[in-house]
Amino acid sequence: xxxxxxxxxxxxxxxxxxxxxxxxxxxxxxxxxxxxxxxxxxxxxxxxxxxxxxxxxxxxxxxxxxxxxxxxxxxxxxxxxxxxxxxxxxxxxxxxxxxxxxxxxxxxxxxxxxxxxxxxxxxxxxxxxxxxxxxxxxxxxxxxxxxxxxxxxxxxxxxxxxxxxxxxxxxxxxxxxxxxxxxxxxxxxxxxxxxxxxxxxxxxxxxxxxxxxxxxxxxxxxxxxxxxxxxxxxxxxxxxxxxxxxxxxxxxxxxxxxxxxxxxxxxxxxxxxxxxxxxxxxxxxxxxxxxxxxxxxxxxxxxxxxxxxxxxxxxxxxxxxxxxxxxxxxxxxxxxxxxxxxxxxxxxxxxxxxxxxxxxxxxxxxxxxxx
Amino acid sequence: xxxxxxxxxxxxxxxxxxxxxxxxxxxxxxxxxxxxxxxxxxxxxxxxxxxxxxxxxxxxxxxxxxxxxxxxxxxxxxxxxxxxxxxxxxxxxxxxxxxxxxxxxxxxxxxxxxxxxxxxxxxxxxxxxxxxxxxxxxxxxxxxxxxxxxxxxxxxxxxxxxxxxxxxxxxxxxxxxxxxxxxxxxxxxxxxxxxxxxxxxxxxxxxxxxxxxxxxxxxxxxxxxxxxxxxxxxxxxxxxxxxxxxxxxxxxxxxxxxxxxxxxxxxxxxxxxxxxxxxxxxxxxxxxxxxxxxxxxxxxxxxxxxxxxxxxxxxxxxxxxxxxxxxxxxxxxxxxxxxxxxxxxxxxxxxxxxxxxxxxxxxx
Lengths: 371, 364
Fold this sequence. Notes:
The complex is a heterodimer.
Chain A: E1 7-12, H1 28-36, H2 72-80, E2 85-90, H3 102-121, E3 127-132, H4 138-148, E4 154-162, H5 173-181, E5 186-192, H6 207-228, H7 230-233, E6 239-242, H8 249-263, H9 274-281, E7 282-285, H10 296-306, E8 312-313, H11 335-349, H12 351-360, H13 363-370
Parallel strand pairs in A: 1-2, 2-3, 3-4, 4-5, 5-6, 6-7, 7-8
Chain B: H1 2-12, E1 16-21, H2 37-45, H3 83-92, E2 96-101, H4 114-133, E3 139-144, H5 150-160, E4 166-171, H6 185-194, E5 198-201, H7 220-240, H8 243-246, E6 252-255, H9 262-276, H10 287-294, E7 295-298, H11 308-318, E8 323-324, H12 347-361
Helix pairs in contact in B: 5-6
């Protein structure tokens, strides 16, 4: 299917810099610490995305030394120009979010955010980014969100699908209050800090199993958000599930619907069926498409079961390898839905993209706003 | 006139196999006569040793009457402990031809002291025969094994293998390691030899891992949902560890885990296996093929889509020959055989799901 011009890509991954390149963004204390302890030589590679694994990058989306995503030029050419993308949201998959030392995590997250602003957003006006935060210290996370969100090019707060605690829990609510106040959706991205076994039956042997288990993680996080009443407390909050797959969602809506009817007295704040809450607040990025290739009717049925054409957001998940060539749009999507998920839904989901989108049609003002 | 109609309906009514019935002890001490003296003393002095913070109670209290149907309380003892009441309000009333016993409490699957776990499992197996199957020929037992002790588990399977009243092997899906790990393979070899399927009923906290990959739920609503993820983890592990390549005749029954999630997980496994298959060269066929050949699903708690046709589509994808009806008697979320399916089944499909699949699988 032809990709219409002006798409908004809601999940892509620029290559992260070596820690040594982040030194200049760290305060003196941490710069010394990093140098003295040789932390600046560490990779900060998330276990969830082994760089040489096939899933982590398409063969043609690697740099000359094999780096997933290559440099900014490769990203421009392969992720933006190739799909006629006018705006794209970078989700930085950096190991800072998996550190146990909360002070170090906060400092390194801040350095990553500043690096993203200087090295990506300043250099490529089509790029936007998610804020990485030290999730396990919600107060530090809020401080970082408030600091970075002054820059309107940061459009979302990114959390990982698997961490120490379920994300709907009240101790994280200050993050959601800040998100709502600053018009930033919460983006939960696939991946784990491995503070817990990835499954309730322990540790799988293979990376492939961990990746399959991501959908269970998204399911449980979504049920956590709904059950804890996060959306009742923060009625304008949007939750974006990134790289989550899609086809698991209708069965979740059915099961939680029945369950809710049985357990309502436990969660009296849930005044509507989970499916209704999910349709109003939850969005999902497109790739990876987890319906069988070559059977578009199955994907079409899933989309019909979602019961809303406002939930999907276009994404390439560059440079992760989920499709070949230009086949980013699976069969089974109507032209109207394609237009919605590529342009309208992202603009509705991310208030901070709207300004940029208007600007695109008004080149005279462009320079000024993108700085 | 009315009487005639009612009689004809009763006569034509399909008898069913209920794949999930929970028997209970009348008192906690009911199991003691089945334990050797050493363990009778142990249980009195030390009690159970489990991997969660509250012993002998549910960390996520249920919504009504400790998770039981309010009409299922006998005059004495807890629901599920009175055979006569079970006969009257379930076996007779619902035309249950065969019922599978699913002993959950104190069966040894959760016990950390493996010697005690073995003694408990053996006792529960004897108790099933004496208290239930011996009294009521419609009921069938399962060989409960303490899965973390594969040596003892194999011994117990072999000890019971010649007794046709035991129709399956029961272990916990909430194991210490995902069930595909090779430490459990001797159990699968024994299951193949004994020609029994492995029944995996959703379970508490056996292995001690949090209910999700991101920690513990807050509410029972979440905990109930997390059981889906447990079943998904079990399926994924058994397939990608190569268990079915190694044990081609092994059959797995997922009990009380729902089934609407199965096609989506199959697609997901196929897609990512295709990309990452170099990591698991022992998995030579698309994962969905192993699902189709080796897994059976009990139906309760049956998912209820907004559009009933969606349920039919899911059952079509899984295969009507792989679904087996279950009620979960006497638990609160019991599925009534007359009301549970909100979608139309053909006569043939109904016979398969309510009776024939279980009869074939369990050689009843």
